[in-house]
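Supplementary Text 2. Reproducibility record for the structural model of the 198-residue chain.

All settings were left at their defaults, and a single model was retained for analysis rather than an ensemble. We include the record here because the model underlies the residue-level annotations in Supplementary Table 4.
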Amino acid sequence: MKPQIFRILGWLIPALCIGLAGGLIYLQNQSFLRVSSQRNASRLEVQKAQEKKRLTDNLPSEHNYAAVEESRTEESSFLDYLKAQAATCGVAVVDWSSQSEEYGKSRSPSAEDQKRDALLKGLKRISSTVTVSGPFPGLRAMVMQLEASDRLYTLSSPKWARTPKGTNLTVVVSRYVIPETSSNGSGKTGAAPGIREI
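Retained model, structure tokens:
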């Protein structure tokens, strides 16, 4: 009887050892696959970050500016620019009117106006009410181009109207100039503090 038990144990113990070894190998393999997957994901994230950095490094430097020097041709140049932008978007400028406001020149400024004027002293805001006509996608594209422009433009009071020929957009486009009267005695027009010139 004892030899039979020893024979069974002689087969059972190695089988158990092999089973335990197989289980450990399986668990280790799963852990290795999980770590390898995490490593590959991390490597991919690093590659994406490197590619994004490379693209960012290759971007052209920004040339944003808030105001330009006032001149006799400033308004006509701006109108030409506006018409060119409209043409590239498949729309047309059909109406135009302008009015200007120089900060700090108000006769009876409110406390809020005085605070604003102190920050923007030396600048003039020229607000133009512009009506542009054409298909809606073109009008939207033009607005997006103005917002992405290097020069600072403020768009306000948009009004949309349907017409038999398409859509009309009337919007107030404000731009900023440095008045000629703010010369510093050297013959050059000086920008207000914090304003980046062209």
